[in-house]
């Protein structure tokens, strides 16, 4: 199916919220990972979200070039074309954009969509993330407020982060566990006062409840998904809204238990980012292939090897299928499996 229209994407998020499930959002850094994500979503019968970080976009552009806006556009053009062959609907999103990357990543991409929309087309990306977790809260909200009208004009959704996700992802790093790893209702209230609740443009919120980017064993990080419910209730009471007024995003979920994921979704998470686990699934399959077929992949002791074994397509297919299997698992954990609207 073609990439989701803004209306389809909004409907996806609304449907997840009302249906008590969430969409997995997978980071892609190559055409292979895009294909693996599409394969896995199709096998699961799930719609979903494909996203790219600044580092992923740099890699798409060519690792010696690092033109992240160019790379992100290449990512989107490839995805727009190949997605047509799959019977599911996907939306495109740009992940973590810290303040130093605004001028060479997020703002150029918004400008490109503004040109396309002005010519009667659809936005290139259905949503973009502004990651203000490394700046003071007031500045974080002020930048979000400046971006929201432009996002509304192109019918795209803004993702903001209120709080701090620990660990590191593509150069955005926060150390250790501290109070900032747990968003407060007061902080979210400040964001709502500035951004509204949809009237100024739609936004979704990555609130933090002990999340850490990267890999860790279950129990290795103190997650408090019940905090999301407390914040939802506090915002509902303060602003006189219906229950669960916020659409939430779960970052740093690798190693989370099934119960933690289920409680986060029950408290309004409609999008969960997945990167570390799919990276490992892809690379683990490549490693297994190379170790088991080393005498075909390598020209050992003067032999010629086996071209069919070292053809990148051979191990690439194995890696993509392994990553696709992890995609399927994510859809099952989040409840989106079998719910494709396509």
UniProtKB/TrEMBL annotation:
Residues reported to bind Zn(2+) 1: 96, 213, 251
A single MF term (Gene Ontology): zinc ion binding
Reactions the enzyme catalyzes: beta-D-fructose 1,6-bisphosphate = D-glyceraldehyde 3-phosphate + dihydroxyacetone phosphate
Domain of life: Bacteria
UniProt-annotated binding residues for dihydroxyacetone phosphate: 214, 252-254, 273-276
Pathway noted in the entry: Carbohydrate degradation; glycolysis; D-glyceraldehyde 3-phosphate and glycerone phosphate from D-glucose: step 4/4
EC category: lyase
InterPro entries from the UniProt entry: Aldolase_TIM (IPR013785), FBA_II (IPR000771), Fruct_bisP_bact (IPR006411)
Protein name as annotated: Fructose-bisphosphate aldolase
Species assigned in the record: Microbacterium endophyticum
């Amino acid at each position: 199916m073609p990439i989701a229209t803004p209306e389809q994407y909004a409907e996806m998020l609304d449907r997840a919220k009302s249906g008590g499930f969430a969409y997995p959002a997978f980071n892609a850094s190559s055409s292979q990972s895009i294909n693996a994500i599409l394969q896995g979503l199709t096998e699961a019968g799930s719609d979903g979200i494909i996203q790219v970080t600044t580092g992923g976009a740099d890699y798409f552009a060519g690792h010696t070039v690092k033109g992240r806006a160019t790379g992100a556009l290449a990512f989107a053009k490839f995805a727009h074309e190949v997605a047509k062959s799959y019977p599911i609907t996907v939306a495109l999103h740009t992940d973590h954009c810290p303040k130093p990357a605004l001028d060479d990543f997020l703002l150029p991409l918004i400008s490109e969509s503004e040109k396309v929309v002005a010519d009667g087309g659809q936005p290139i990306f259905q949503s973009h993330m502004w990651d203000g977790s490394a700046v003071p809260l007031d500045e974080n909200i002020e930048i979000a407020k400046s971006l929201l009208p432009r996002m509304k004009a192109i019918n795209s959704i803004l993702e903001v982060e209120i709080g701090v996700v620990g660990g590191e992802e593509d150069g955005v790093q926060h150390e250790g566990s501290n109070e900032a790893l747990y968003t407060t209702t007061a902080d979210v209230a400040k964001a709502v006062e500035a951004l509204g609740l949809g009237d100024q443009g739609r936004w979704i919120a990555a609130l933090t409840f002990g999340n850490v980017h990267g890999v860790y064993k279950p129990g290795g990080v103190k997650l408090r998904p019940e905090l999301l419910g407390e914040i939802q209730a506090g915002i509902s009471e303060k602003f006189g809204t219906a229950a669960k007024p916020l659409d939430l995003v779960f970052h740093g979920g690798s190693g989370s238990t099934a119960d933690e994921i289920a409680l986060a979704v029950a408290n309004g998470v409609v999008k969960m980012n997945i990167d570390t686990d799919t990276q490992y699934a892809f690379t683990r399959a490549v490693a297994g292939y190379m170790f088991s077929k080393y005498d075909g992949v390598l020209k050992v002791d003067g032999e010629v090897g086996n071209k069919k074994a070292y053809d990148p397509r051979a191990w690439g297919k194995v890696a993509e299928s392994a990553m696709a299997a992890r995609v399927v698992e994510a859809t099952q954990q989040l409840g989106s499996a079998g719910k494709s609207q396509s």
